[in-house]
TrEMBL record, chains A, B:
Protein's UniProt name: FAD-binding PCMH-type domain-containing protein
PANTHER family the UniProt entry points to: GLYCOLATE OXIDASE SUBUNIT GLCD
GO cellular component, one term: glycolate oxidase complex
Superkingdom in the source lineage: Bacteria
Amino acid sequence: MITKDVKKQLIQIVGPENFDDSNAGRLVYSYDATPQFQSMPDAVIAPRNTDEVSRILAICSEHQVPIVPRGSGTNLCGGTCPTEGGLVLLFKHMNRILEIDEENLTATVQPGVITLDMIRAVESKGLFYPPDPSSMKISTMGGNINENSGGLRGLKYGVTRDYVIGLEVVLANGDIIRTGGKLAKDVAGYDLTRLFVGSEGTLGIVTEAIVKLVPKPETKKTLLALYENIDAAAQTVSDIIAAKIIPATLEFLDQPTLLVIEDYARIGLPTNAKAVLLIEQDGPLEIVARDMEKIEAICKKGDAVSVQTAQTEEEAFALTEARRSALSALARLKPTTILEDATVPRSEIANMVKAINDIAAKYDISICTFGHAGDGNLHPTCTTDIRNEDEMERVEQAFAEIFEKAIELGGTITGEHGVGAMKAPYLEMKLEKEGIAAMKALKAAFDPRNILNPGKIFAKDARKRVVTER
Amino acid sequence: MITKDVKKQLIQIVGPENFDDSNAGRLVYSYDATPQFQSMPDAVIAPRNTDEVSRILAICSEHQVPIVPRGSGTNLCGGTCPTEGGLVLLFKHMNRILEIDEENLTATVQPGVITLDMIRAVESKGLFYPPDPSSMKISTMGGNINENSGGLRGLKYGVTRDYVIGLEVVLANGDIIRTGGKLAKDVAGYDLTRLFVGSEGTLGIVTEAIVKLVPKPETKKTLLALYENIDAAAQTVSDIIAAKIIPATLEFLDQPTLLVIEDYARIGLPTNAKAVLLIEQDGPLEIVARDMEKIEAICKKGDAVSVQTAQTEEEAFALTEARRSALSALARLKPTTILEDATVPRSEIANMVKAINDIAAKYDISICTFGHAGDGNLHPTCTTDIRNEDEMERVEQAFAEIFEKAIELGGTITGEHGVGAMKAPYLEMKLEKEGIAAMKALKAAFDPRNILNPGKIFAKDARKRVVTER
């Protein structure tokens, strides 16, 4: 609850135009891209600079007002749903690229910068920021940092955490700290930089970030390999790595996903294939040519029924764009789309896909599976209807079993989407109670009054997927 | 102090042959590779497995006995000196490579494995573990992980933290937790894996680690560029990066260092040059050839008086080995060698080297400077004599000024050596009091009774370099 007095203090900081507690204003920020989660904030606030964020947090801390930092709300774990009310904090005024430093290969950004805008800005200087979450057209850098976003290029290049080398963060008590810097090496104390990355706004509010850039790869080539069965596709993934080739992208799509994407994108995807690998290599011209030749041979030897290399940049772009549109395409099928990201060691992909299909059959639900095969990060996606209570019950049981299987295979409950409110009930499967206890102690150390995105990461009670509005 | 009863309990766990509280046994572990630090532990203990580590920690926690995990003690920050007594914990029984997984490109190791042994083992399978601290012939993986060791290949490949993807850690209370896994992507909760890396044994005891491997580069080429002045060398570093080339190694050595190394290694280093760059590129044959050609042209255009490409593998090996021997070579000069690692953004290297030379002149002390120019990680090294109190006073003042300058240039007080006991008094320069407070809260959350390597990272009081035995 925000009292009249607190409201007055907050308005004094940001001005009346940047504070909104109207019903309409609050409603817009009561949910994010995650189905099943909605909860009204008490107000929405848009600070103009770090100092204002600091003053807001000091007030929130004093009055124990929850505060939820939010980029574009594209996350899929209920991470920015204000499940305990309080303030939603927007970065619409803190959305600039502050610097692209070509000598030190860094970019300094505010949290509200759209990911793709930054990617384009650095590419125009011959540089490259590899993390490319499918939502990058609308997601923000702040959101990517808080969720440690992955993407299609993760196999070769890593994820957001691998590129964040410095942060400005406002702590729960209003303290402003700076971590790291334009430095390739820094061991001055604990690595708070990487700790804040992926902490989902529960340890501090990121107000500025320095990211590492690399030279832009000279060229890129894309191919599609079609398979009659999933095992053969999974074996190809292993065979490519065993040949000591690390492609930039190594995506897997099963037939149900292919059908849906083709129906949406209409680019002539081979919907008769049981499984498809979308493979991309980038780098120097001659190496890309050589790698792609080897990859093609491996695919063919591995029982691919067809291997198609994109002949033009447009064709390649269409293929990857189609893959990126998987969520949108699937979302058209039924009212509710639950996109998960159980992740396993690369060697277990075939086993995991098979287990997912068995589990879907067992619970009589529809699951499409696609994902980043190269790094074992799969996206089993269920199209369903939240109003069908009986089916939802089965969906929940199925996903619990999927997570159990992932853990059994040495995997994790979430590879790149985060825990948020949605996965919190499952976290103990991965971490066991000792791991949860350590993380809770860490959370309490940074946020003793539990105002920073409360209700996220840690479950209040037993496994339960559907959260009702408070 | 270890009471009779505690001693009895510890011996029950590890057996009498793995517990040593004799004077001779303790003396051996009263110091590490850092000058000026010595302090006797109460006993030395060598557990045989994780369960024993857990039981030891439960006892230490109960009786508030300090415990200092130690690999080979090659660190340069007093990180493994038992400054507050207690137990030194050795990993001589936990020194095996448990698995090299060629499908998932991982190695699973115990902390006592010698770094170079692991590097050789994975290279024999065509794989590559890039972090290569100069001490790798004797350092352990556990030590590398605790100190987040860097090395010569950091510019292109990153440091130890970039390769650790899973850990088994025993917490202060004896809890055993597992973080990460054989997973390229994992966002299940806070990133404890990277937090433990570089935490210098102050948050938990690492008992097992999964490291990421990459395919072994096909080939490697090495060249030496000689300069008449430091500025030209520093400019070349910037020019290479500006040409979008990231060499595997880009080392800088000033003339005083060259003279000392040549005197030690006798491989015909050009001791008449004022500065030398040692540059190495690895990768596919044609790319290495192309990059090295470009680099050679950049060096020549940048006023290098001579550029010499190593003609054979042996010649290349001799050059990098000579560079790696810098500390040993310098240590022969005078009784005390203080090797520092102030680090700045790459673009500030020339400014930093100049500042170091000015400061050395101002305090009338002898400083040689070499280091990883590509990542701004310099090693100003002072050869002195701890018994010369007057000079030591000046050395301390000089280094304080060097750290101040590094911070002023956007750098840090330590790039790869860690804080330990030695840098603790300077940490606040980099982190300010708010950053220190956040890290102390984190430490208290993990180690409320302050038994894990106490006295490290955080300073008790004001700046003071020399620590006397307790």
